[in-house]
Amino acid sequence: MTTRRRDWPLLTGLILLSVVPAFGGALRVAQLSGGAEVTPEDERFFAAPVPVLLHIFAAVAFCALGALQFAPEFRKRHRVWHRRAGRALVLCGLAVAVTALWMNTFYPLPPSDGPLLMALRYLFASAMFGSIAAGFLAIRQHRIRHHRAWMMRGYAIGQGAGTQAVLLSTWMLAVGPTTQLSRAVLMGASWTLNLAIAEWLVRRRRPAPAVPVPATILAEA
Question: Of 54, 119, 130, 211, which sits with the fewest C-beta atoms within 10 Å of its C-beta?
Answer without folding.
Answer: 211
